[in-house]
Every structure is written in C-alpha cells, then in structure tokens.
Write a structure and sequence with these properties.
Order of helices and strands: HHH
Number of helices: 3
Number of strands: 0
Low-confidence stretches: none
Distance between the termini: 36 Å
Structural class: mainly alpha
Radius of gyration: 16 Å
Helix content: over 70%
Largest sheet: none
Length: 82
C-alpha cells in the first residue's frame, strides 16, 4: 500500500474512533466520574501510542530538530489543550 493510502487509512480510523468518544463518554457518565473517564482515555491512548512512539523515535535524528520545530510543537499542543 502506498504511503498516502496508509496515511489516509490511519486518519480515517482516527476520525472514526474520535467521533465515537462522545457516545461512549455519555454512556459511561452515569457509572464513572468524569476524571476517571479522562484518566482511562489517556491510559488507553498511551497504551496504543507509546509503542509507535518508541518505534519511530529511534528513526528520528534528534540533532536535526531545531528550535522552530519545538516552538511549533509547543504551539500546536497548547492549541490542542485549550
């Protein structure tokens, strides 16, 4: 499969799973407190994303990552949180 098709497949899967989070959260809201639901979301996200980060983290040349990259990462993550 080409890189573009693989990327689109991953994006489609992410959009599908992200759209389901509202429904699942509403169903779980009566049984669990909101902070527990948030903790479980981050725990499951970490379980799935950490192996990917370790695999691709070894391929990155960290010396080539400059301050502009870190600034962009910080701004994007700040916008995602707020």
């Amino acid at each position: 499969m080409r890189k573009e098709a693989t990327g689109m497949l991953f994006i489609g899967g992410t959009v599908f799973l992200w759209s389901m989070i509202e429904v699942i959260t509403k169903l779980m809201h009566s049984a669990l407190p909101p902070l527990t639901i948030a903790y479980l979301r981050f725990l499951l996200g970490g379980i799935f994303l950490l192996p990917v980060a370790f695999f691709f983290g070894r391929k990155v040349k960290w010396a080539a990552v400059g301050w502009r990259d870190w600034t962009a990462l910080f701004l994007v993550s700040f916008l995602g949180i707020s």
